[in-house]
Write a structure and sequence with these properties.
With 148 residues, this protein is mainly beta. The protein is 14% helix and 43% strand.
Amino acid sequence: MNFIVIKRSWIVTAFVAAVVIIGGWIWLKPEIIPTIAPQAAKNDVVIHITTGELKSKMDDGKEIESYFWNPGTVYVPQGKDVTFNIYGVNGKEHSFYIEGTDIKGTVKKGEEISLKANFKDEGMYRIICLNHSDKNSNGPMIGYIVVD
């Protein structure tokens, strides 16, 4: 019966050789290996908006609240495709429209909607929540889209 004897120096030599081979392969390999998902192209304009709420108590104990878009003002380039990702954080739902366009929708709490737009004319467009249009309905919930 023959026995194979493995010496410690053989194990160390094999380990060092493996490290050198793998390291050399990684060092000399010309292609780049992506480690994260590709990002949107630099020309893509994506605007993230959330719904927000402020609450306060009056001296008489009455609670008041107001809803808002966050951020309240966004800037977009004229003539470029823009994606608005709107996420509902506060309030059950917010039905809205963008003044001067045919864009409208409803964002619900815990959900995100995505809208595409392209503003041909520069100026200011308001995003208006129909559920909170004035002080009596905890508003006005109005955001501003500045096209330049």
